[in-house]
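Key result, reporting period 2: structure in, sequence out.
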């Protein structure tokens, strides 16, 4: 559960800042790759949350 704190801060936030700095008119293939990279990072964050929920569920049943 603790990994969901620093992961967005150190992994996702720089990508968000990069995307926010791209002007809409200047968006091109590099922007598309950055968005795809952001999607992968978000999938990791989702998996971390899912894993944390499973660990919590296991601990509460035991």
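The corresponding designed sequence is given below.
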């Amino acid at each position: 559960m603790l990994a969901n704190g620093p992961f967005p801060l150190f992994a996702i936030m720089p990508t968000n800042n990069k995307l926010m700095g791209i002007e809409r008119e200047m968006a091109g293939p590099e922007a598309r790759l950055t968005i795809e990279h952001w999607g992968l990072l978000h999938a990791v964050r989702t998996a971390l949350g899912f894993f944390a929920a499973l660990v919590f569920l296991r601990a509460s049943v035991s």
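The chain has a mean pLDDT of 91. Residues 29-61 form the longest helix (33 residues). This case is discussed further under Risks and Mitigation.
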